[in-house]
Amino acid sequence: MTDFEKTRSLFYLPEGIVYLDGNSLGPLPLAAKERVARLMTDEWGELLIKGWNKAGWMMMPRKVGDRVGRLIGAPEGTVVMGDTLSIKVYQALASALELRPERKVILSDSGNFPSDLYMADGLIRSLDRSHELKIVEPEEVEAAIDETVGVLMLTEVDYRTGRLHDMKSLTKKAHDKGAIAVWDLAHSAGALPVDLTGADADFAVGCTYKYLNGGPGAPAFIYVAPRLADKVRPALSGWLGHETPFAFDLGYRPGGGIDRMRVGTPPILGLVALDAALDAWEGVDMADLRQQSIKLCDLFVAEVEKRCPMLTLGSPRNGEKRGSQISFLHREGYAIMQALIARGVIGDFRAPDAIRFGFTPLYIGERDVLKAVSILADIMTNRLWDAAEYKQRALVT
Fold first, then answer.
1. Which residues are catalytic?
2. pTM
3. H-type helices in the chain, by residue range?
4. 3-class SS shares of the chain: helix, strand, coil, % to 5
5. pLDDT class of 140 with cuts at 50, 70, 90
6. Which candidate, 47, 80, 139, 185, has a CA 20 to 30 Å from the CA of 158?
7. Per UniProt, where does pyridoxal 5'-phosphate bind (predicted)?
8. In the chain, what is the greatest distance between 2 CA atoms, to the nearest angstrom?
9. What is the pLDDT at residue 16?
10. 115 is in an annotated binding site
């Protein structure tokens, strides 16, 4: 059994705070402070540019990629780190479209993160080849997969509601209809068991600053199935995706396998922080994590519905049908969340009316859940949210 008391001790959690926003930004792993400090002094400071060879910086995108891969069911050598999630979405989608040149439809759903849809729209406009982005309701995705679809592009866990897609069945349906499947694991990696190999996914992308606790702006990852890795053409043909980057050829030749999905100079500070953060996953059984996550979410839902009847559940009630987050709906959701934050319970707000809470068993337990509900109940019962200072919108919600 996974020792979640032990994993909790690996994080810095401010005194008096109940942190239920790890689905947006994970807390600071204690090991990351020391590792980044050591990089700054012993590697960057002492080695200077020699660090690329002597400290192994150049291979970090693959090394860290393999560590992430173990959490998402990806074989060694199929995941590489670098850039942002939006860039990785663009890379995966562009490569996927080239694999089905005769197909013009990209199918996604209204629960997808808007940035993924923006990247698809921008790519379509740049290609100018009559592609179409078709967006349906999440419940309508399976029925909408037909012979016109070239690429199925979905986020496995809905960022607002936590609704969980069945990756394996939808990927099979896509393949049966001749389409390529691209999965965004932003709210999956580190939140629940993922098996890209078992699902036969073609591409997957994800960020690492949420459940993987890599820090603000931590580098994203991309996965390409081994059967496709030497076939796909990288749309962003950066110098580190070249077969021999330091030959400085004027013509581009893609590197072998997943290395071709590298673009520019790897963000070493971010990769080192993430590498340290991933130490917390050593010895964690993902089945234990999933069981504890569902238990905490179920407790939260039951207690909130009992004590705050004015809030409406916005997430699937069945724990097996959602990720590791819960949303409740209220027209004054923004003010409610600001009142919670002022009382030391940190979640976030997603327009138009969702207050959202993430449950990460690595550092959240039942006591945190009950404390959060008690404070929420006081705020709702006594309308403490109804104050001018809680209704002034900040830049980040």
1. 113, 184, 209-210, 356
2. 0.96
3. 4-8, 30-38, 46-47, 51-54, 60-69, 85-99, 114-127, 141-144, 167-176, 196-199, 268-277, 286-307, 333-342, 366-381
4. 45, 15, 40
5. very high
6. 80
7. 85-86, 113-116, 155, 184, 187, 209, 239, 265
8. 68
9. 95
10. yes
